[in-house]
Amino acid sequence: MLPVAAFHYRGLLMPREPPRVDFPHPEFTRPAQEHHDDITQFLLSQPLAPVSITFTAAQTLHLKKQCVPSLKCTSFEVLAWHVGRAWIWALDLPAALRVKLLFSVNVRRRMRPELPGGYYGNAFVLACAEASVAELTASGARYGIGLVQAAKEVVDDCHVRSVVDLLELRRGWPDLSASLVISSWTKLGLEEVDFGVGLPLHMGTVASEIYCFFLQLVGDLHGYTMLVSVAQAVADKFGRLCAIEDLVDREIN
Fold first, then answer.
1. Which Pfam family, any one, appears in the UniProt record (predicted)?
2. What does the alpha-carbon distance between residue 7 and residue 113 come to, in Å, rounded to a whole number?
């Protein structure tokens, strides 16, 4: 018997009647500005190189210390900012270009009432942290992580209903131009899957110039592996910008 009863009814996330969009949703809106088409064409025209980078507990803690004590943050929030900024720097994007860090937010406990514990099916929306390249690269960790946190905080019951209604009215897709979509898979239990030959040692690669995944580091409950693909011409640069081993070594010694 399942410990939690399965709940299959999807009507809990049906659009309202009549549907209405109560909030701006930048994750679906393409800014009217130059360079977006150029950036998209560049990304699509380049051969991709997969990049896998490990962040140990010590390295993640080092990033978090940049915000203490004025700002508390999660590992996901600080790594999303760190990887997103490295991605922007590596691509050498125009300073005035507005870029988006998109990431999924589980809404099961954000709905009112909350969705049942055994609710099956998708129950997430995309949150959007948006700023100009100049703002993201010139500011410190507090600013960038603050954007990620603010994007998460607006996702409540009213926001989710507005997203559902927007999709009902427009049947739209997220705007992925000048965007990096970051998804955390750290709580899916992938590191515990055993098909009869033992637990996994590694997962990869990701063949997409848009999607970035965080996975649980095998053997380290507080460590993470980041998987993404970037244009081959900037892969080494991106890896160097993400790496923080030297910073941690200097701090310890």
1. Transferase
2. 15
User: What domains does the chain contain, in order, with CATH numbers?
Assistant: 19-188+203-252 (3.30.559.10)
What are the average pLDDT values for consecutive 10-residue runs of the chain, which has 253 residues? Answer: 82 93 92 62 78 91 84 93 93 89 95 92 93 90 94 97 95 87 88 85 76 86 90 93 62 39
Query: Which strand (E) or helix (H) includes residue 52?
Result: strand 48-55
Could you write out the three-class secondary structure of 147-160?
HHHHHHHCCCHHHH
* Single pTM value for the model: 0.88
- Which residue type occupies 215? L
Cβ contacts of 23-27, under 8 Å, gap ≥ 24 = 23/154, 23/158, 23/159, 23/162, 25/128, 25/162, 25/163, 25/166, 26/100, 26/128, 26/130, 26/175, 27/100, 27/102, 27/126, 27/127, 27/128, 27/174, 27/175
What's the CA gap between 51 and 73, in Å, rounded?
A: 25
Structure tokens at 204: 């990869």
